[in-house]
Amino acid sequence: MALHDIAEGISEVLQGKAFEGSLKFDCGNDGVIILADGTASTTNRDTDCTITLSQDNLVKLLTGKLNPMTGVMMGKLKISGDMATAMKLGKLIG
User: Fold this and answer.
1) DSSP symbol at 74
2) Given pLDDT bands bounded at 50, 70 and 90, which one contains residue 16?
3) CA–CA distance, 72 with 77 (Å, rounded to integer)
4) pTM for this entry
């Protein structure tokens, strides 16, 4: 699944939900997904928080197959920046 397709799916989930701040899923050479202003895009920009992970782990995270805390503990994802913004993500995808 391409990051563009994943971003479109996230945008659908964001419809009607409030998400303050901005968050970047950084999948390295595969690209980025930015959550900001009520939508998701693949255009890179500075954000309040960055979650660095593989594209496979991003799909697992978004589908509930990877617990965020477990992912951090196992080194499958790394969070930098505003931790409060990262915590808001759980409310969106949970």
Assistant:
1) T
2) confident
3) 5
4) 0.92
3-state secondary structure of 18: coil
Paired tokens of 33: 């997904």
The residue assigned the tokens 């009607």 is 16
Nearest to 24 by CA among 50, 55, 6: 50
d(CA 44, CA 14): 19
| pLDDT value at residue 20 | 85
Q: At what angle do helices 55-62 and 3-14 cross, to 10 degrees?
A: 20
Query: Which own/partner pairs from 65-68 qualify as long-range (CB within 8 Å, at least 24 positions apart)?
Result: none
CA dihedral 48, 52, 57, 58 (to 10 degrees): 30
Q: Which helix (H) or strand (E) holds 52?
A: strand 49-53
Chain centroid to CA 53:
9
Question: Which H or E run includes 35?
Answer: strand 32-36
